[in-house]
Amino acid sequence: LGRSYQDVVGAVTAANVRCDVDQDLYQTASRIVCRTRASPVQKTARNPIIIKLRDEHKYTAISNESFMYVDPLVTRIEPLKGIASVVLLIIPPSQFILSPSWFS
């Protein structure tokens, strides 16, 4: 998964869209946390997560699991009561964690 953050920055894609590796959460050779960017088109197909460190096959890792963009659906907001003048809805950015077990 790379020896340093610099090895993996710009090398990860999910569903064929580049995603941004979180430098603070990166753990050398064991974990990559990546925040996806917006999909340029409506994505419905499942696609692998790919880490391509160089333009050679032996430096490419492809996940066994698939990634798919979905439209978020808010089903509940809590708390229902609070400060009357403030309403805050937080939807976290898309985030996934890559672990070595995902790769063949």
UniProtKB/TrEMBL annotation:
InterPro entries: Ig-like_fold (IPR013783). This is Plexin_cytopl domain-containing protein. It comes from Anisakis simplex (Herring worm).
